[in-house]
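> call design_seq(struct)
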């Protein structure tokens, strides 16, 4: 990553002889005034020992005097009663005015402070604008953020440049920013109903994965603050206006705020922003903006009504009180619960920053709130402060050559409009529900920050100020304020996050399932593309590919995803405008090596195993007589008579077509038994050619070499609506070059006939074997491009990326796949993954570095890429075994499900016992 200088000379207060100027001048002035007032001028000599003391203190921490000032500012006198500095959510004196209770001086309740005075918010003056007590206006956005794990360096740097440009352009306006990154525990679930007990039970057990404490989420928020006043005089003049004039002025401020908001929102479009505002629920008005501010107060999610009342009185964060003791704060809630927090501040910065420098914090198993405020200053003020600080360093004993040289760089970049500057502050509040937990988690964060080269410290002296400085516009409580460049701020906030998919409003409703990202966030997995905010009932592209070698977790993943897809068979999940006859779901799995056998049977499905030489039960002449089937029947017969590469003459093609037309039109369906034999009876033989059309077709007649394939009395390949899941195994015939092409074609033809507007999915595992024939590929190619229009999806699975890419239609498969899923593959090559599957180099490197036993996969979609894992540990070993059938278990599984005297539930239980014992 490109690095930018962090001008460390501006990260500390202005110093004189090693002591911050402001407290030194203030203390010296007080001593001089006292000596003059008391007429004891010798008291002025105290300045020298005081100076030495102050210098010693500054050596420990240059912000020590600022911290002591804030400690005094947030001081309370009730610590002796509570054992900690305590701020209540309700002020006792305010209650006393309304209710005639006597003051209980023994407990000093009349002196108990409320944290209300530290709540800066005043009123909600528009759906998305809050005004504070100083008449500043603020609007907040929740930001999805941009992915970074798999994003190329060039794109990441582009995001930094965009952010830098935003903060530069706003440096000429009277605005400021508060950025928050909140990481917290979440519980997630997806509603699903299944008729099948096995599917229902495994689904319920799977979502036990996502109970409280197992998942976390990072939520990013950016608050824009507009101060309409140049100084306190301006604000005082506004306050003195009569109500009507003040109202008219306020309308002008709101209009200006809207301009700024629209401008910022447009500039942040790539980061996916959502403005927090008033919303309606069950006839009541709530505000997501106030809910966010309320969370900052108490660290708890609660709904907040949009009321016409002072915000500082009813935004209390669900708290009873806050208790500060040394370096820890205890949050006591109205419901009797409690939480603990510790605050971390940056004591000394690194010499450089880069985009995403704080990304390591996103992976910590810790709950926290990061606050980073930035108050841009005008160019002329920045230049002045840089020059003054440079001069002070030159004249002081602080002779760091590097820092002195950096001032020239800063002034040059400022002059060239490459950067702007602003007052910056950072804090991170770490939360836990136990005192031990908060200490352990704080140490994790400190270690992570130290690894980045940052010198950090626990907030203790001014802990209340650090806590309350999280609230937007509480500038006066910020403990450690440094002057940073817009590039530094852009790199520090980064707006990086992990993709989370989409939970609802997908083509078929809710997401298929939930996976976990590498930082333990939920990823809502979908196959369909996202084309709008609400795709429910639409027909976006949903085709997919799954690549992963044996043992990588691919088959388990496919089995589980198929099971999760079956929830869409529930009629309650369909849009209201879908006809009743289309409210159904059919899923077909073309299998190899019977890997899906147990899962399909346990899920209430039908599984067809085809053995070489055994009658298949196929009779293609039993299909419905329509143009589509007639064309497919012609193609099938052509495949039969050209298996050795023979070329059909026009006369031969005409013979086939005429024979098929005659049979299909002159014979009823019940009369088309042994269709191949019937066709041969209606074809003339060329006696001068031993390799004639009829001679080649006779090999497929009942009783001949391949008669077992298609010349059967009836056709048993059917897909009744009451069954949602079908499996067809091609293990034996796919390796037989004589029969694999026609059988693959026929199965694919019959399966794709089901595509009629219902929800439909076809998964072809080891697809390269099923699609070896060019005519079969052509059929698949056509469906790839058209299946979405009829509410279907088509999936391709393989252990070998190169096998799939060698298909003639490989390019179409890649182009027409909305989602590609890559598992571990130690044979992955650059050409296959980057050139073939269009992965980026970073994505390829990630796949290349997968560890087989981690069972991770990279999900690449047209709009995002993410590394996830499918954790099936909660469903039980026996259920995991059912998802993927091993070759050694096939015979036992077939015996269990062949028992006609047992119910499906009994068979599944017997299968579980079998796996438990094995």
């Amino acid at each position: 990553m490109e690095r930018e200088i962090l001008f460390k000379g501006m990260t500390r207060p202005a110093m004189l002889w090693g002591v911050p100027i402001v407290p030194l001048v203030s203390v010296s002035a007080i001593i001089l005034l006292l000596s003059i007032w008391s007429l004891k001028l010798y008291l002025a000599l105290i300045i020298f020992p005081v100076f030495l003391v102050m210098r010693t203190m500054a050596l420990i921490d240059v912000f020590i005097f600022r911290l002591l000032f804030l400690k005094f500012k947030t001081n309370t006198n009730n610590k002796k009663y509570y054992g900690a500095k305590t701020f209540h959510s309700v002020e006792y004196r305010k209650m006393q005015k309304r209710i005639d209770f006597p003051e209980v001086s023994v407990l000093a309740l009349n002196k108990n402070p409320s944290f209300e005075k530290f709540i800066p918010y005043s009123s909600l003056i528009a759906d998305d604008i809050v005004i504070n007590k100083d008449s500043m206006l603020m609007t907040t956005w929740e930001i999805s953020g941009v992915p970074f794990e798999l994003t190329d360096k060039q794109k990441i740097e582009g995001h930094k440049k965009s952010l830098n440009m935003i903060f530069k352009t706003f440096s000429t306006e009277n605005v400021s920013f508060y950025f928050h990154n909140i990481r917290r525990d979440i519980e997630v679930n997806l509603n699903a109903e299944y008729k099948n007990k096995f599917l229902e039970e495994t689904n319920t057990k799977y979502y036990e994965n996502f109970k409280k404490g197992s998942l976390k989420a990072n939520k990013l928020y950016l608050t824009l603050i507009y101060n309409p006043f140049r100084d306190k005089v301006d604000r005082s003049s506004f306050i003195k206006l009569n109500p009507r004039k003040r109202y008219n002025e306020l309308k002008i401020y709101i209009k200006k705020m809207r301009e700024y908001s629209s401008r910022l929102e447009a500039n942040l479009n790539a980061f996916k922003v959502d403005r927090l505002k008033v919303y309606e629920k069950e006839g009541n008005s709530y505000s997501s903006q106030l809910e966010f501010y309320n969370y900052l107060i108490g660290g708890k999610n609660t709904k907040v009504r949009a009321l016409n009342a002072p915000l500082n009185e009813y935004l209390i964060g669900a708290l009873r009180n806050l208790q500060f003791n040394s370096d820890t704060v205890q949050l006591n809630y109205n419901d009797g619960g409690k939480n603990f927090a510790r605050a971390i501040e940056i004591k000394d910065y690194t010499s450089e920053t880069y985009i995403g420098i704080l990304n390591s914090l996103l992976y910590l198993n810790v709950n926290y709130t990061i606050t980073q405020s930035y108050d841009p200053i005008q160019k002329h003020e920045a230049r002045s402060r840089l020059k003054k600080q440079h001069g002070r360093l030159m004249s002081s004993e602080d002779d760091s050559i590097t820092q002195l040289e950096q001032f020239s760089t800063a002034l040059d970049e400022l002059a060239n409009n490459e950067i702007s500057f602003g007052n910056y502050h950072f804090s991170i509040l770490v939360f836990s529900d136990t005192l031990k937990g908060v200490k352990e988690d704080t140490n994790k964060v400190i270690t992570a920050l130290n690894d980045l080269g940052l010198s950090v410290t626990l907030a203790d002296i001014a802990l209340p100020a650090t806590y309350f400085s999280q609230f937007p516009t509480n500038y006066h409580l910020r403990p450690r304020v440094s002057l940073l460049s817009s590039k530094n701020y852009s790199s520090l906030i980064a707006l990086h996050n992990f993709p989370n998919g989409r939970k609802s409003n997908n083509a078929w409703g809710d997401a298929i399932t939930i996976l976990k990202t590498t930082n333990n966030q939920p990823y809502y997995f979908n196959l369909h593309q996202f084309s709008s905010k609400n795709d429910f009932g639409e027909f976006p592209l949903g085709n997919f590919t799954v690549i992963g070698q044996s043992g990588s977790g691919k088959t388990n993943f496919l089995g589980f995803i198929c099971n999760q897809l079956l929830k869409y068979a529930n009629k309650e999940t369909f849009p209201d405008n879908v006809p009743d006859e289309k409210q159904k779901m059919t899923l077909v799995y073309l299998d190899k090596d019977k890997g899906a056998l147990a899962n399909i049977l346990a899920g209430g499905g039908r599984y067809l195993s085809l053995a070489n030489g055994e009658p298949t039960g196929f009779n293609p002449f039993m299909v419905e007589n329509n143009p589509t089937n007639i064309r497919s029947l012609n193609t099938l017969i052509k495949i039969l008579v050209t298996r050795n590469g023979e070329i059909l003459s026009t006369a031969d093609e005409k013979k086939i077509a005429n024979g098929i037309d005659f049979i299909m039109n002159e014979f009823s369906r019940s009369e088309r038994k042994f269709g191949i034999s019937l066709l041969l009876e209606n074809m003339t033989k060329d006696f001068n050619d031993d390799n004639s059309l009829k001679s080649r077709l006779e090999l497929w007649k009942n009783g001949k070499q391949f008669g077992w394939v298609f010349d059967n009395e009836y056709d048993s390949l059917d897909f009744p609506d009451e069954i949602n899941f079908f499996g067809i195994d091609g293990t034996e015939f796919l390796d037989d070059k004589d029969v694999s092409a026609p059988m693959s074609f026929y199965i694919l033809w019959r399966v794709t006939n089901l595509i009629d507007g219902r929800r439909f999915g076809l998964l072809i595992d080891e697809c390269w074997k099923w699609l070896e024939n060019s005519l079969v590929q052509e059929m698949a190619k056509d469906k790839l491009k058209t299946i979405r229009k009829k509410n279907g999806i088509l999936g391709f699975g393989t252990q070998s990326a190169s096998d799939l890419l060698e298909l003639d239609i490989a390019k179409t498969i890649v182009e027409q796949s909305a989602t590609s899923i890559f598992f571990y593959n130690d044979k992955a090559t650059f050409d296959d993954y980057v050139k073939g599957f269009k992965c980026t180099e970073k994505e390829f490197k990630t796949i290349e570095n997968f560890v087989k036993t981690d069972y991770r996969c990279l999900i690449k979609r047209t709009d995002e890429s993410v590394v996830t894992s499918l954790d099936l540990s909660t469903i039980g070993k026996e259920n995991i075994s059912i998802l993927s059938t091993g070759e050694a278990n096939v015979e036992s599984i077939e015996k269990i499900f062949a028992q006609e005297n047992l119910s499906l539930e009994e068979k599944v239980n017997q299968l579980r016992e079998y796996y438990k014992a094995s």
